[in-house]
Design goal:
This protein is 31% helix and 29% strand. The protein is globular. The protein is α/β, with parallel strands linked by helices and 217 residues long. The chain contains 6 helices and 15 strands. The strands form 4 sheets. Strands 1, 4, 5, 6, 7, 8, 10 and 12 form an 8-stranded mixed β-sheet that branches. Strands 9-11-13 form a 3-stranded parallel β-sheet. Strands 2-3 form a two-stranded antiparallel sheet. The relative contact order is 0.18. The structure holds 1-O-pyrophosphono-5-O-phosphono-alpha-D-ribofuranose and uracil. 1-O-pyrophosphono-5-O-phosphono-alpha-D-ribofuranose binds next to strand 4, strand 6, strand 9, helix 4 and helix 6.
Length: 217
């Protein structure tokens, strides 16, 4: 199904190394450990893109050769917020780059029949309104889980939110961008669409089950 979305609010991280890693991730023969490692690596690379505009400030330092003016990130506070479960697989990739980030959690599961999201847990840093929020979830399918998580974050005062997915469906992108007029979405791929079970095609299957090894074979 063709589906339009505002591409100016979506960044596809199309670096060749990202695409190579994504192909291994998609492969059904990729095992749990490698899958988990790749999700972390892709999250790290996406975080690099999603923090590209962080403000810098001049600082005076001395190198072993001479005094100089160097540049450091100017006190911008970050939070990484995984949507449970699968988003947990991306947290360490973000923390690899931004070790001081706080971590909030939003628990969502998708009803297997209706595909509607259900929130079952939430815990955020108290100063969430002052932080740049990186919401992470590898899969953006119908967009229901992402939209519900963003709605919750807005209700708690979050203003600057970026959403990092690994694979997204066009339908889901359109739904999330319409539900939240300010969010910017990063993804490694915009796939073809959804199947009758609302799984992304070609996708990579059930991300949570592949990260945590809970797939029934
Ligand atoms: C998956 C995925 C997203 C959601 C995407 O989670 O991690 O949260 O589905 O689908 P949507 O865009 O149609 O809402 P799932 O509900 O399978 O839970 P899990 O992470 O605990 O496996
Ligand atoms: N959740 C997943 O884990 N995979 C999909 O393709 C859709 C939802």
């Amino acid at each position: 199904m063709a589906c339009d979305f505002d591409s100016s609010r979506v960044t596809v991280v199309d670096h060749p190394l990202v695409q190579h890693k994504l192909s291994i991730l998609r492969d059904r023969t990729t095992g749990t450990k490698q899958f988990r490692d790749l999700v972390r690596e892709l999250a790290r690379l996406e975080c690099y893109e999603a923090t590209r505009d962080l403000p810098l400030a001049d600082v005076q330092i001395e190198t072993p050769i001479c005094p100089t003016t160097a540049r450091c990130v100017a006190g911008r506070k970050l939070a990484v917020i995984p949507i449970l479960r699968a988003g947990l697989g991306m947290v360490d990739g973000v923390l690899d780059l931004v070790p001081a980030a706080r971590v909030g959690h939003v628990g969502m599961y998708r009803d297997e029949v209706t595909h509607e999201p259900h929130e079952y847990y939430a815990k955020l840093p108290g100063d969430i309104a002052e932080r740049l929020c990186l919401v992470v979830d590898p899969m953006l399918a119908t967009g229901g889980s992402a939209s519900a998580a963003l709605q919750y974050l807005r209700s708690q005062g979050a203003t600057d939110i970026r959403f990092l997915s690994i694979v997204a469906a066009p339908e889901g992108l359109a739904a999330v961008l319409e539900a939240d007029p300010d969010v910017h979405i990063y993804t490694c791929s915009v796939d073809e669409g959804l199947n009758d079970d609302a799984y992304i095609v070609p996708g990579l299957g059930d991300a949570g089950d592949r990260i945590f090894g809970t797939l029934d074979r």
